[in-house]
Every structure is written in structure tokens, then in C-alpha cells.
Write a structure and sequence with these properties.
With about 400 residues, the protein is α+β, with helices and mostly antiparallel strands. About 55% of the residues lie in helices and about 15% in strands.
Amino acid sequence: MDELNSTILGNEVLAIEIGAPITNLTDKISIDFRNMQYKGIPSCHSWNGDGKRPNWTQDGCLTIQNGDDITCECSHLTFFAILLVPLNESISSSDLNNLTTITRVGCGVSMFFLSIVLFMHFLFRKANASVSTMILIHLVSALFLLNFTFLINDVVASLGSPVGCKMMAALMHYFMLATFTWFAAQAFHLCVLLYARGPVGSRRYLLKVSIVSWVQPSAIVILMLILGKYGERAISASDSGDHVAFCWITDNNWHYIVNIGYYVLVFIFTFTIFIIILSYLFCLKRTAKQGDDAKTSTDKKSITVVLGLCCTMGITWGFAFFAYGPLRIPSYYIFTILNSFQGFFLFIYYHYNSDPRKVTKAQETPSSHSTLQTTMYNNENPYGNLTWQNPAGQTGA
């Protein structure tokens, strides 16, 4: 097997040679495989025999499928084999290049804006930060580290160090699970605020949430490190020899259980809270009596709130569930664009929610009308009733 642990059809490698290099044949040779049972996308590859491990290439070979029969037409003589690319890891070369570019640019942009959020918070706003803002900062930190490890992942994979690749995969996996957990923590916090209708009174509330959100993912990662489930993987293009190597989970079953299963639980919880909050905000909006101009302004703020909630709760990651059948490629693009630029959306959300000027305004105008408008942005408790004093005026944002 090669360094990418490619699956070889039938575990067979065929050698065709006559003792001298033969290339650029006018009449190509045909190698037929009849009545083959396989899962994945087959492609004919050749190897010149150099190196300790095969360096398979598709150059000079054409793959022809006819039902269960596969024919390889090649213009040279050497070692041949059919490699199988898993169905969920094969896309066209153009889509692979486009998605890779979008992801790298998006992650770079996200890291830039996330770093601005962290800079603004620790330099200017940390002293007056509320519990809600601190939870948001933890989420921003986890997402920043996830983007960073993702950007350097392929660089580490290219070094060819198995130990380094395993550590890289474990780090990126940890920050991804931590990000998912902070999505759930954000939703839980908003649910508590909605229920309490005021500041959270539990002692060391933030410390408890932080310990659970940062420590719980580490247990999963340590277990998978012990079981040896990390290593080098590749996403291959179905119409060429292009592939993107990266350090990740090598066992698909564990990937589905640990990642997909974990996020399904997080998504069900966060999406339920998301619907409850939207319903509550809609009721507040219907209750408020405003003019046409104010209504237009509130509509714009409502859109901002919805986008902010989607980002802070990780709702946009749910597009991965549509990555099947004809919706697979479109969902890849939507998923990649939204999540690559998630840092920018969180920057906008943080800017509006932690602006001290909005806190001052909320303190000076405690009326129902002003409270409703301010709480559309305020990160402390946007869900209190219309007669209750805005908690931003008590704790700061």
C-alpha cells in the first residue's frame, strides 16, 4: 500500500514487463477485471517500482467501467493496480481546487477577524465583560485555534512524519470538538437567561461551563490517540490524479460515531433553543407598538440577531447533513463558505453586542420600547419581559 493507505481492489498488483522500459505505446494494452464486487470509485494506477512504498499515478492509464467489469487501457508497461476512492471522499478536480481555495481564504479571513475580537476584548473590554460575553470569547478562541490548525494541517502532512501527523490530527480534532461543545454551551446559556429572566446567580457559573466545555473533548481525543485512530488521509478527485493529503481520523466508523454523532446531539439541542428564541423574539416584536420607520430598523436588527444566533450556536454546520446525492456538491460550497467566514460573522456579532455605548443607552432609557430595541443586540439577556430592567444596565456587556 502507498503512504495514503489507498484501498487496492482485490489486493492485487499486476506486473507487465519485458526487461526494458516501454512507454508511449500507440496501441494501448488492455487489462480486464471481470465481475468485480467493490465499494467506491475505481481508477487505474501504475507504479514504476521505485521507492520503499508505491507512488501510484494515473498518468498514461484510462479507466473504463461497464457494470461490474473494469478495463484499464495503458500506454506503458510497469506495475498496475486499481485503487478505490471512497464515495464520500471523491469530487471533481475543479470542485476540489475551488473548495480548497475558498476554505483557505475563508479561514485566513476568519482568523483575522477573530484575532481582532480577541484583541479588542483583552485590551479594551475585558474589565466590563459580562458572563455572556466571556462565553462568546471562549467560543471565538476555540474557533480561532480550529482555523489555525486547519490551515497548517496540510503543511504538517507534507513533512511525512507519522508522529507529527497524528499529533496534528489530534489537535485539530480536539479544537473541533471544543468548538461544538461551546456551541452547545452558548445555547445552554441563552436558555438559562430565557428561563431566569435575569443575570445567572449560580456561583462560579462561568468556571463550571468552561471546565466542561474544554475538558470533555480532551477525553475523546486521548481515547482515540490510545487506540491509534489518527493518521494521514486524502481527498481525491475522481477525474484526475489530484488529491489533498491531510492529518485526520483514519477510521471512517470512528469519524461517523465521534464527529457526526457528537454534532447531531449538539445540533438537536442548539436548533431547538434557536427555534424557541426566535419564537420569543417574534412575540416581543408583535407586542411592541412602533412606527413604520422603527419597524424597518427593527427588521434589520432582527436579521442581524438571527445571523448572530446561527453563528454562535453553530447552526450553519448543519449543512453537512445535506452532503448526499444531487445536493452533495452544492452543500459542500454552502457549508464551506458559511463556516469559512464564520469568524467574520462572529466579529460583527461581538461588535454590536459588546459596544459600551449600547449599555449606557440601556441604563439611561429603561422604557419598554428602548429595552426591546437594545436587547435585540445585548448579549446578556435579549429575552427578558418588556417590563423588566435590562440586565445590561446591571452587569455591563
